[in-house]
Write a structure and sequence with these properties.
Two copies of one chain form a homodimer. By secondary structure, chain A is mainly α. Chain A is built from five helices and three strands, in the order H-H-E-H-H-E-E-H. A three-stranded antiparallel β-sheet of chain A has the order 1-3-2. Chain A is elongated and about 65 Å long. Chains A and B meet through helix 1, helix 2 and helix 5 of A and helix 1, helix 2 and helix 5 of B. The structure holds a DNA duplex (30 and 30 nucleotides).
Chain lengths: 128, 128
DNA sequence: TCACTTACTTACCAAAAGGAAACTATAGGT
DNA sequence: ACCTATAGTTTCCTTTTGGTAAGTAAGTGA
């Protein structure tokens, strides 16, 4: 059974879990980060090509979910071939500093973490 | 096929995706937040009961992964029955402000987001 | 001898996430 | 008549995630 937007009202009691669950997927944070870096609105294929390895389907559902949450604005121009542009809303922009903070932390501590992982695996081999 | 710790070296090229992928699971952020709030180290069952709806298995793998990354320190006392205590490392503590920022953002914008979701669903019904 | 405790591990299973490829609409170009 | 382009949607499939329940170790107390 597929999960639909309507089913996302779980954890309604806990704002933190409810909201952060949304960013636990594979692409949301990346898309927000990307739209945040870009000064102007981006087209669908522009986003897809910049990310590189996202499927059309997943980009669509990611953007739709972000739109539903009010994080991303979708502007559809009724032309042919179609043109659709995406940009962060004020809400989306207000999240940016926080995930940028996370991202900077990740970059800064990447070495420490990978070394820790290797050490942990090595220790495991000795024990088993 | 199960994913083992050893297999986590994907996205090695992108620190952000590599590190943040780790927090995309159901429990990691919650466990860090919890250990961060607590002044003293916490025992396994203490963590489990505070969270409430986490399974033993998932708490074990979550803590192991955080330990492997160097975020959490595990202290094992060779007593019977066993006693194991967990607390954040300095690395783990350095992440706290960032996810606390996220959490506060989530609380602050929870209303806006749930309203946006409802509006989006309502609009969808009209169109289809 | 049996139950009880803690902190697990393991096997099995259901659900969810996500990828690949084909299909869609529509107009313009050749 | 066919190809191109954009931004999707749909179907089918595999992979990943996470839950349940049972089993494990090892000493203590009844």
């Amino acid at each position: 059974m597929k999960k639909k937007l309507e089913d996302y009202d779980l954890h309604a009691s806990c704002p933190i879990r409810n909201v952060l669950d949304r960013f636990g997927d594979k692409w949301s944070i990346l898309v927000i980060l990307l739209l945040g870096e870009h000064k102007t609105a981006m087209r669908f294929n522009e986003v897809a090509q910049t990310i590189g390895d996202i499927s059309q389907k997943m980009l669509t559902v990611t953007l739709r979910t972000l739109e539903a949450d009010g994080m991303v604005m979708r502007k559809h121009y009724p032309e042919i071939p179609p043109r659709v542009e995406y940009e962060l809303t004020e809400l989306g922009k207000s999240l940016l500093p926080h995930i940028n903070g996370l991202a900077q932390w990740a970059v800064k501590n990447y070495d420490t973490i990978t070394k820790s992982r290797k050490k942990f695996i090595a220790k495991k081999q000795l024990v088993s």
